[in-house]
Amino acid sequence: MPRALVPVIVAVLVGQALLFVFPALMGAGLAATMAAVAATVVLAALALLVFGGGDAALAKEMLAVVTKIERNETPQPVQTTRTDDMGELAAAINRLTNRDKAVEQANTDALTGLANRRGLNQKLAYAFKRNQPLALFYIDLDKFKPINDTYGHEMGDAVLKRVAELFLANVRENDVVARIGGDEFVLLMFDLTDRKLLEDRAEKILTAISEPMWVNDVRVKIGGSIGITVAPTDGESPEALMAAADETMYAVKKAGRNNWKFYS
């Protein structure tokens, strides 16, 4: 393969990645980022084979890495000692993979695997940038502190993990579930603003977390106070929408807890 093609292929690969990595940092999401990068990687690898001089086994390994990325799996780095054109391409793939792993880790709550506050803020900012309608549930668990006080923080962590699973089971695939600190969670439901549908969803979620649950052979019962806001009606910015939901959640707590309420 003519060496002149190598800078072109690598430049296209890196350039395409940057076009999608930076939006991801603003909230577009890891899956969308890597799906776009994957298409370019495939084309680059095929180009190396078509123009000759490529290593079919190495190209196959690179394509396997791309496939895992497309499935939102964590791939192992491409293994090669080559320092030629194919080696350069493999190194570029590894750099992009590592970069997105770092982005994902920075946006993820270590305990539950949910989005953290940083990840949530990026998702919200991106949705507002696109003027995307959405509903936001701000949830604070009820009766959680006594669990920590009685059984210890290890038990509390186990309960938080179980609650995270329940939230994930009661949202759609493209919705976002985030733990923003302690026993506070936020659910983002994109393109869902119908009040009746949101009422049904709130009841379903509240029922799920209010049922007694067995955690580490201990039967525990908690609840949740939910403040609901809808964008863009209840806030012209992510900060305003979150503040309105937080305020509403505290109003629910003052009114008796274990319930939900709309901001407006």
What does this protein structure show overall?
It is a single chain. The protein is an alpha+beta fold. It contains 9 helices and 7 strands; from the N terminus they run H-H-H-H-H-E-H-H-E-E-H-E-E-E-H-E.
What is the topological layout?
Layout: H1 5-28, H2 30-50, H3 56-70, H4 85-106, H5 117-129, E1 134-142, H6 145-151, H7 153-169, E2 176-181, E3 184-190, H8 195-210, E4 213-215, E5 218-220, E6 223-231, H9 238-254, E7 260-262
Parallel strand pairs: 6-7
Antiparallel strand pairs: 1-3, 1-6, 2-3, 4-5
Helix pairs in contact: 1-2, 1-4, 1-5, 2-3, 2-4, 3-4, 6-7
Q: Find the CATH superfamily of the largest domain.
A: Reverse transcriptase/Diguanylate cyclase domain
Radius of gyration: 23 Å
Distance between the termini: 64 Å
CATH top level class name of the largest domain:
Alpha Beta
Largest sheet: 5 strands, mixed
Strand order of the largest sheet: 2-3-1-6-7
Mean pLDDT, to the nearest integer, reads 83
Helix percentage: 55-70%
Q: Determine the number of helices (DSSP H or I, runs of at least 4 residues).
A: 9
The number of E-state strands comes to 7
Helix- and strand-based class? alpha+beta
Beta-strand proportion: 15-25%
Compressed to H and E, one letter per element, the order equals: HHHHHEHHEEHEEEHE
CATH topology of the largest domain: Alpha-Beta Plaits
